[in-house]
Amino acid sequence: MMPMAAFSPRGESRGPWDRVLVTGGAGFLGSHLCTRLLDAGAGVDCLDNLSTGRAERVAHLSGRPGFRFLERDISEPGCADALTGPYDLVLHLAGPASPAARPDRPVEVLDTGSLGTRAALAVAGRDGARFLLASSPPVRPAPDGDAPDDADPVRPHSARAEAARFAEALVAAHAGAHGSNAGIVRLFTAYGPGMRTDCGGPPAAAIEQALAGRPVTVTGDGGRRHPLCYVSDMVDGVLLVAAGRSVRPVDLGGDEAPTALDIARLVIALTGSDSPLEFVEDTADGAVEPRPVTGFAREIFGWLPCVTWQDGLERTVAAFRGGSDPFPAAPTGRTAAERTGEWWA
After folding, report:
1. HEC secondary structure over the chain
2. In contact, 249 and 292? CB cutoff 8 Å
3. How many angstroms separate the CA atoms of 52 and 54, rounded?
4. Distance between CA atoms of residues 26 and 67, nearest Å
5. Nearest residue to 136 (alpha-carbon basis) of 204, 190, 74, 185
6. Which residues pair with 135 in a beta bridge?
7. pLDDT one-digit tens code per residue, 265-296
8. Which of 36, 39, 50, 80 could potentially form a cystine with 119 if both were Cys, beta carbons 3.0 to 4.6 Å apart?
């Protein structure tokens, strides 16, 4: 295997990944990453137990040279031994993408964050591969202090928060104790073609409701802001961080944060729906939705989101209506292969 070169913000010294393991590869972001990596000439092993992922997300990759789909659970005993590799890069995306995913199976969520992360780290360590954990940002309590603290291990949806916290601690410990080439990206709200529409939050829920002709629900007065990042920009960020050697967690998310009301109104306009707006009670307990701090990603990795939230919603609605490729070209008009080739130019 060709070792990865040191990261350069200008991209002159990045070497190729010959083979990549993507756990959770049949998820929303994972499937886009698999596609981009294959288009760039890397071989990809896509691992997913399909608890939240969907096989149809990677069905278009079936038969492509270098692609393998493995329906297995990374946290199960013996899974790591079955991943023969060898790999240059391990992208660990396994686990629920949102608090609404698998709330009825907290033990599985915790196993993925602990046993699954340990297994993925072992595979990367065996092959001397770069390891990158896809984590989630913490939910901060409301400024008035009335909202429950995210550090409470027995609060609702705490399994996901605790799994993410432990996984990050495990990665940092491996990097510190063993010198592992391991890093962390904290992913904020990504959206685009292929995303789940049953997780209850904007813009996915609004698109599903508008296309079905149902009322588009808006929580509270609609003033809650949501930082949105289009999926192609998120993929760019993940691969830039993967090409480096940073251990410090890196926030990836949109700089723009439209309100829930802005999102709902634009979705209705883009779909041409007659759906009315319906304001419902905000049940978020006053928790403040975290905002990404992307200065580190910009300054060190040269990452800059380039799709506005309005353009991203237009692309997403078109894809859900069947009017475009679910894996569209980059906003500049370059193909995915041309765009991804820049990682190792």
Report:
1. CCCCCCCCCCCCCCCCCCEEEEECCCCHHHHHHHHHHHHCCCEEEEECCCCCCCHHHHHHHCCCCCEEEECCCCCCCCHHHHCCCCCCEEEECCCCCCCCCCCCCHHHHHHHHHHHHHHHHHHHHHHCCEEEEEECCCCECCCCCCCCCCCCCCCCCHHHHHHHHHHHHHHHHHHHHHCCCEEEEEECCEECCCCCCCCCCCCHHHHHHHHHCCCEEEECCCCCECCCEEHHHHHHHHHHHHCCCCCCCEEECCCCCCEHHHHHHHHHHHHCCCCCEEEECCCCCCCECCCCCCHHHHHHHCCCCCCCHHHHHHHHHHHHCCCCCCCCCCCCCCCHHHHHHHHHC
2. no
3. 7
4. 12
5. 185
6. 186
7. 999 999 999 999 999 998 765 566 789 999 99
8. 80
Q: How far apart are CA 219 and CA 221, in angstroms?
A: 6
The per-residue pLDDT of the chain, averaged, comes to 84
pLDDT tens digits, residue range 65-82? 999 999 999 999 999 999
Q: How far apart are CA 57 and CA 59, in angstroms?
A: 6
Q: Are the C-beta atoms of 249 and 172 separated by less than 8 Å?
A: no
Question: What is the DSSP secondary-structure string of 172-222?
Answer: HHHHHHH---EEEEEE--EESTT--S-S--TTHHHHHHHHHT--EEEETTS
Cβ count within 10 A of residue 103: 14
Query: Does residue 85 contact residue 15 with C-beta atoms inside 8 Å?
Result: no
Residue 155 has pLDDT above 90, yes or no: no
